[in-house]
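User: Can you predict the 3D structure for this chain?
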Amino acid sequence: MNRLVRLLLSVSAGLMLSLSWLGFPGWILFAAFLPLLLIDDYYVNNPVRRGSFHFWCYSAVAFLTWNIMTTWWIIHATPIGAFLAIVANSLLMSLFFLLGHLIRTRSRKTTGYLAIAALWLSFEMAHYHWDIEWPWLNLGNGFANNPALVQWYEYTGVLGGSLWIWMVNILLYFFLKRLAAKTDIQRVMISGATLLMTIFLPLLVSFLLYRSYIEKPDPRKVLIIQPNIDPYSETHSEGALNDKLLRYIRITESHIHSGTDYIVGPETVFEQDWNEAKLPDYPAIRRLQKLTKEGGNSSLIIGASTYRFYNDMDKVPQTARHTHDGKYYDVFNTAIFTDSAGNIQTYHKSILVSGVEKMPFRKYLKFLDSFIINLGGTTGSLGKQPEPENFTAGNGDRIAPAICYESVFGEYLARFVRKGAHAIFIITNDGWWKNTPGYRQHFSFARLRAIETRRSIVRSANTGISGIINQRGDVVLSSRWWVEDALEGSFNLNNQITFYVRYGDYIGRISVLISVLLLIKSITERILKTKNRTNSNCVKPR
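Assistant: Here is the predicted structure, written as structure tokens:
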């Protein structure tokens, strides 16, 4: 296998990994890692000087291709975010893959492939929890447009899909190797049968779940507003902010009618930084509350930029800013709930976008705060809410308010559901990415959240795709891109808890444990081998 062939294999792996994020079926991922496994096998069986470094380079080409093809659109919003998401993520992917390759060169075949899969799943798990969270390209997301194939995500979450993809890739590679080697026909047949069972058994379970799942009727009527404001041309003057309010009111008033339970608006409709202590006093809030009366005691959820001052008794978080007179405060990306009775509840976005809403590793890099670009019009890292909290309507409904990027995190939304959420409302502004695959990918991920939690999804985007997704992940209602729109529909509440909601990303935690054990085993064997070699060299012949 010459250098050009290895390079072509690397690029082809990157292209195959990209296709499911670009609208192609998710099952393409079942063969996407085959080119890299072939290169891995070449270097394991043909040791050369600096072979591990060469393998890392080829894997880096594959992952860079994948990241560029699927997430290039981030550059429209922030070059810093694009760098973190593309270059840094490609580097991390290739390093984890290299680590699996190194273990495989020193282990038995089965152990080596187990290490590659376990380390990859550990990497995906880490992307949910460290300070540069970026699970956008977790493999299980590749089935976002094929919800009928992965109804069992209610038991495993997205990481179950990632595990499935790795199992099929490895088994398919074994089968093709044995077939090409013309080994014993019985072994080929056993390998093929195992592969087919691994593919079709989960598909059968999924189709049965899809056909048998029936939502319990508990309907609520909702009006979803998509104001379609261009985030690149809008200004933050008093007049422009008032125009946004009037536009939102005009669209709502022309579609609302008695019997509407919820009115939902997108993320950061109001960006004039409201003081949370004075929310009831703002004319805009009072006007929104008047809208709820027109719907017959409706509840309204909308996004805004807010701030809160801390008093001397409060524990001031690291994200806090200070005024010239020494007072500390935080700025938040906030979801606001209000109703005709004058109740007001707030929820602060907790999972912030690195390089856009927060400085990653801020404890060590606080001096770089001035370089953070906050798309809501402020600078520095935003504050966040430490624990998810549902909105509670007057009739007892509990609604999970997910803001934008948070909808990519399955276990985080599961925490809302464990706290009693009956439905999930996602408010977002996908206009920053313009007419690219970005807003379509973001919408499709919400379908996986519906399956994992078996909760209806109501989604309001400033522009992008607004709509309703049922508890099977089917799109019931949706808007078009870059149009002013108002969608009237209904969704069902649910109070049942899925296995995934109860136990979260247990597959990721098990993978981390396996990875640690395999790393310890590999390091121990390396040390013992070196020690034995040293002892052998010290023994002198008689």
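The first strand starts at residue 219 and ends at 226. The first helix runs from residue 3 to 19.
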